[in-house]
Amino acid sequence: MTELRIGMIGYGFMGRAHTNAYKRVSDFFPELKYKPVLQAVCGRNKENATAFANQWGYASVETDYNALLSRDDIDAVDICVPNDRHREIALAAAAKGKMILCEKPLAMDTTQAEEMADAVDKAGVANTVWYNYRRVPAVSLAKALVDSGKLGRIYHYRSNFLQDWCISEDVPQGGASTWRLEAASAGSGVTGDLLAHCIDTALWLNGGVANVTAMTETFVKERTHAETGKKEPVGIDDACAFLCRFKNGSLGVFESTRYACGHKALYTFEINGADASIRWDLHDLHRLEYFDHDDEGRVRGWRSIHVTDHGGDHPYMERWWVPGLQIGYEHSFVHQLADFLAALEKNAPCSPTFRDAVETQKVCDAVLKSAAARSWETV
Ligand SMILES: NC(=O)c1ccc[n+]([C@@H]2O[C@H](COP(=O)([O-])OP(=O)(O)OC[C@H]3O[C@@H](n4cnc5c(N)ncnc54)[C@H](O)[C@@H]3O)[C@@H](O)[C@H]2O)c1
Fold it and tell me: Where are the beta strands (DSSP E) in 264-347?
């Protein structure tokens, strides 16, 4: 095995999810040549970063990402910090010849995303963006079914990502816990945070988007800033709904909000084809619902496929337990990492690459532009 020495920047929610993947992947994918090693974690606060390193098993700590990038004993950099920091770190990492695994959304906007994709391509460094839902086995199965032609011509794609954690006006913006509500850190609200996932999956399953028309709303206009204690205008979109036309002629309907009382992280999609339909939701992530019009009429109906079978039927599942036993959210990161490491061996790209993620960014930008202009926008 060859060590792949990881330097991870940021150690919050995603830092934990990724570290879990680094620790598990070689146990469950033993054939991989590359074995991740937790070489260094980087955070601004030495005490907190050291506590994280001790808890999770990182060998060293840095408080300046440039110091991390200058080290010869770091092969790959993992960017797990808020969105406004992705560009500068990725450009610096590419310049140092480091492989890059970057959290989504890749950037604050398309201009930044293209600059980043150009930088990794020019440097010739392996790269991927953590749109992890592609690697939920039921979603991977959806991709296989669509690609096999089982759905026939696609007419409709509909997708939601619903949360409710912002309903209280007392939730602050900015700072360590609520940077997502501050435009300067997040870039946008639900569009870049949640719809970006829906869009990435949609582009993967159903191809490119031609044009969009959107509406956004900011329900709470002012929130206290967590760092200054002052009320400041809210610059992000609290909710966004958009219609689109895909390049294959199908119609898309997307909605995301942080004000859907009762929903914590309800990511769903449904695709209706001429011959069959599929639907999936994150709260029941190990199931794929499937309706086949060719079924005998007497028993025709929606099937709920428990995506846990072996024998190659259900992607990734052979790696885990026995058929019938399901896996969860964290495994999607293990799978993406396994695919990244396998691609590295073959010197092949691991999708979504930075270049792939530019396409998602373009749709996000068109959505926000359309909402502001109340127009249809070409992607
Ligand atoms: N793939 C997914 O499903 C998914 C889920 C959540 C978050 N994300 C993305 O991951 C990234 C991080 O989100 P998170 O939920 O882990 O956030 P988080 O707030 O839990 O953690 C962020 C980390 O970055 C550090 N940090 C904050 N500001 C920084 C700065 N200016 N410089 C250096 N470090 C800084 C924090 O100390 C913390 O360690 C974001 O881009 C987010 O969009 C992706």
Answer: 266-273, 276-281, 287-292, 303-306
Which tokens is 189 given? 């609200």
How many residues would you count in the chain? 379
Ligand 1 atom with the shortest distance to the CA of 14 = 16
Same domain, residue pair 160 and 245? yes
> What average pLDDT does range 151-170 have in this prediction?
97
Residues 126 and 175 in one domain: no
Quick check: CB of 80 below 6 Å from ligand 1? Answer: yes
Domain containing residue 314:
134-352+354-378
**34 vs 4, 120, 351, CA distance in Å?**
6, 20, 18
My answer on whether 121 and 143 are in the same domain is no
> What rounded mean pLDDT belongs to the chain?
98
> Rounded to whole angstroms, how far apart are CA atoms 364 and 361?
5
Is any ligand 1 atom within 6 A of the Cβ of residue 62?
no
The protein residue whose alpha carbon is closest to atom 37 in ligand 1 is: 10
The reported pLDDT for the residue numbered 41 is: 98
Rounded distance, CA 8 to CA 88, Å? 15
Residues 6+ apart with CB under 8 A from 140: 134, 315, 316, 335
Q: Are residues 277 and 209 in the same domain?
A: yes
122: Cα separation from own chain's centroid: 24
Asked whether residue 1 carries a pLDDT value surpassing 90, the answer given is no
The owner of tokens 């609290």 is 238
- Asked if 283 contacts 269 with a C-beta cutoff of 8 angstroms, the reply is no
Q: So what's the pLDDT on residue 141? A: 98
CA angle 156, 160, 127 (to 5 degrees): 95
